[in-house]
Amino acid sequence: MSVRYICLLANNVENAIMSILMCLTPFLFAPFQPVWMLPAPRISHLQPLSDEKTLRVRWMLNCSDVVVDFYEIQVSRTEFHTIIYSNYTLTWTSAVPLNCTDHSVRIRGFYRQSGPSPWSDWVTNKGTEPEDKMKVFPSQRFLKEGTNVTLCCVPQRGANITNMAIYLKNYSVISLGTRVKAITIPNVTFPTTPIKAWSLTCNDNDKEKYWFPVSFPPQKPRNLSCETSDMKTVRCSWDPGRPRHPFDLNKQTRTLHIENSAVAAVRCAVSSCRFPVVPQLEEYNIRVVVKDNLGEETERYRFNLSDRVFPVVDWDKVSPRVTDATLSWVIEGKLTDSMPVVCQVTTSPDRSTEVSCQNGSSLCQVRLDHLLPSTRYSAKVRCSVNGRLWGNWTSVQDFTTNPLVTLNIWRIIQKLDHPHSRQLTLLWIPHVTGSGAIHIIKGYVVQWSQKDQNMTEQVDGGRTQTQMSIGSERCDLTVTAVVSSGASVPAHITIPQMNDTGILPVEKRLKDGFTSLSWDKWDKATCGYTVEWCIQGHVMPCALQWMIVADGNNTLLLPNLGHFKAGYRYTFNIYGCTEDGHHHIEIQTGYSQQLQSIASPSLVEPVQTTSSSVTLQWLYAEDDPAHPAFITGYSVTVQESGYDRSQVTVADAHMKSVTIEDLQQNQEYIFSVCALSEAGPGQTSTISIRTRANYSSHMAKILIPSLLLLACVILLWPQRKRLKTRLMEVFAYPAGMNIKTRELERFLYEVWTNHLQISSNAQRQLDCASCNAVQTVHV
């Protein structure tokens, strides 16, 4: 309960007389009073306000010339006058609704010379006395979220309250007098039930429920602003703050007041409001009021209408072409009639254009150039009156430019038996830019001219090549695609006259694992280069692939490296482009990876042999492109039975014979021949050969020792006696041992025989050592 006091002077005769008597009383009886005392105040009015928690208190001033320093007020509750408040502060709020029970007020004043006055009489505000039905307070049923609330049940006479419950949950009951009961709900929260209200019952057997909706007070509108799009209607918007639950029963009202106009208040939506422009009014002072059962909030805003113009734009149409598009839109409200409008057009990616719309028409348009063919674009538009405040963007408008067809053209030239005729195969690859489909091509027109002849051929859309016979002179050709939509760029190619330069192409080999090509620049090239190759290498028929290299560049990064297979030989022909045609300037050959699986050579028989050498010959197509690697030479292996191998290497792939020397006569050897490459040796061809016998060598070995021995016998025969004596000393025969001449001769013969055997074995070991030596011959 809030106590307020209003000090009123008497406004009628009776009150005036009473006031005069009260003022004279201290003086009339002054001799009989030792100390003057301030008279007791008299409460003249006690009125409860509509909030059920506030009492308005009025009392009379007893003497106008006496100024009371302060008052003390007391409040009591129930018929027992239980004092619940006593203080010198004249503001107090009751936690219990005033209708629940009696509330009484009394007051006294204080003056510095006399002390407190006597208390006034109690003045009571009676609580509700229901006659036939129980009543529940507060009657204003909306409960404020987050507050402590006291609810009371006032029964009719003769009834009694035993308990109170919220959603069948009993609370501690507070007695307010003899019959009235109350409960206090701390920190009120939103119920979890669909209906956002508390259900109160006053007795267990009472089937009637009393509903108390829970809500929160209105919030002050934030970020209030106003704008117009057509100078006819003003739209104001704001942030309403905390959103309300859909089942919140505390309904709000929102009104907008134009304070500097006589226009009536406008009812508003939750976060916006519209009202027509007030004629001749430029400056607006507005007030937005939000009100509900728990309170009221207000926000003010001031603006100049001309500064708050936000044009609204709607799309008219979009007309795309191959490399440009025309966009048009409509500005609502015909703003261009009275003020300049600037519009901003944005297209993805990150391209912006500004357009001035001052033609007095609401229709504006712009042409977007330098677009890519067959490409999807997105555009949006917004406009402004003063260039500072921009209206909202339109919805995004998607459009796709029309396709553009280009042709990659090439040719194959073959000489015919006739010296002045050539067979020309013209090939082309169509390319539709962007995401365009190839099915838009309906056909092709091929035109060529040579000397004074001009010819035209219609080619079906499913074909990408044509053949023709041309003469030895220069020939110019053009191919154009016929498309159902979009446009086509004609492709041109020139065939030079036969044998006009006599250029011999330079041949080079590529390293394994090539990913790009490079070649020497040709100073006569004026329009770049063209590189051609077969997609499947040497495999026929050739699926020709070609790429054009721009002028000034002499390198090419090869596409689709996965198409280049290991063991396949690829030949790249490089042509230099001039005004009179393409000329063959270089040939590059290589493997993405060389493989070792090379076929074996074919040995030629019979093989030429001698007693000490063998000459091998073989047949082999070393330049065959079917080989999985480049042939670099040959390897010949020689092996004698039971002995180590020796190897001869032929480093020239075009030489297919070799002579193996220093072999043993009449000896069997195994010869193996294989081709060599950078990947390693290939498969081998093997042959077994026996060398011829050399009888003259055997005779020399026998006769020479024999002749030497005979010469020694002849020379030593006259000295045989002395030799005998010397031998006896050398071999130290025992004394008395009789050595006969025949025995001596037999001894010498055995010595000679052993000598011959040892010499023969030594010679054989020497010959075998020379056979085991490894020989490498580079021819």
Report on this model:
This protein has 779 residues and is mainly beta. It has 7 domains: 42-125, Immunoglobulins (Immunoglobulin-like), CATH 2.60.40.10; 135-215, Immunoglobulins (Immunoglobulin-like), CATH 2.60.40.10; 222-304, Immunoglobulins (Immunoglobulin-like), CATH 2.60.40.10; 322-401, Immunoglobulin-like (Sandwich); 405-495, Immunoglobulins (Immunoglobulin-like), CATH 2.60.40; 506-591, Immunoglobulins (Immunoglobulin-like, Sandwich), CATH 2.60.40; 602-691, Sandwich (Immunoglobulin-like). It has 4 helices and 54 strands. The strands form 14 sheets. Strands 4, 5, 6, 7 and 8 form a 5-stranded antiparallel beta sheet that branches. The chain has a 5-stranded mixed beta sheet with strand order 10-17-16-12-13, with no helix packed on it. A hairpin with a 4-residue loop joins strand 50 (631-640) and strand 51 (645-650).
Can you tag this structure with a few keywords?
single chain, mainly beta, Immunoglobulin-like, 5-stranded antiparallel β-sheet, disordered N terminus
Beta-strand percentage range: 35-45%
* Alpha-beta content class: mainly beta
Helix content: 10-25%
Query: Mind telling me the CATH class of the largest domain?
Result: Mainly Beta
Mean pLDDT: 83
What is the CA-based Rg, rounded?
Answer: 63 Å
CATH topology of the largest domain: Immunoglobulin-like
Number of helices: 4
Tally of discrete structural domains: 7
**Coarse morphology:** elongated
CATH architecture classification name of the largest domain: Sandwich
Spatial separation of the terminal alpha carbons:
128 Å
